Amino acid sequence: MLTNGEYTTYLAGKAGLSDGWRALKQGDLAAAIHCEQVAEKNNPGFYQNSWLLAEVLLRQGKYPEAAAACRNALDGRPALGGERRQIKQLLTEAETHK
Which end of the chain has less neighbouring CB within 10 Å, N or C? Predict the structure, then answer.
């Protein structure tokens, strides 16, 4: 992992997620989407990428897309129960706004 560049890619994905959550907190949705794309490129299929995307899409009023991103996040099998609950709550919110 260290010699073939996978660790560097992992770190880039982790940084993208961190930057994305920070941008979301600051209300910069365009930057959050960009960071999610960086995270997804570097760590494809990771549930937290989809979770971040769902949060952004919900704030943009794109409810069906947010619900789909929530389902993708849940399909990624979040390890922590608290995270699963938060994603499920987000899914419920997205589905009630259809």
Answer: C
Surface-to-core class of residue 42, CB atoms within 10 Å of its CB (0-12 exposed, 13-18 middle, 19+ buried)? buried
Residue 43 covered by a domain: yes
Range of the domain at 18: 6-96
Q: Which residues contact 77 (CB under 8 A, 6 or more apart)?
A: 47
Can you tell me the distance from the alpha carbon of 47 to that of 61, in angstroms, rounded to the nearest whole number? 21
Q: Is residue 1 part of a domain?
A: no
Q: What is the C-alpha R_g of the chain?
A: 13
pLDDT tens per residue, range 25-67: 999 999 999 999 999 999 999 999 999 999 999 999 999 999 9
Residue 60: Cβ within 10 Å count: 13
Half-sphere exposure of 76 (CA within 13 A, CB side): 22
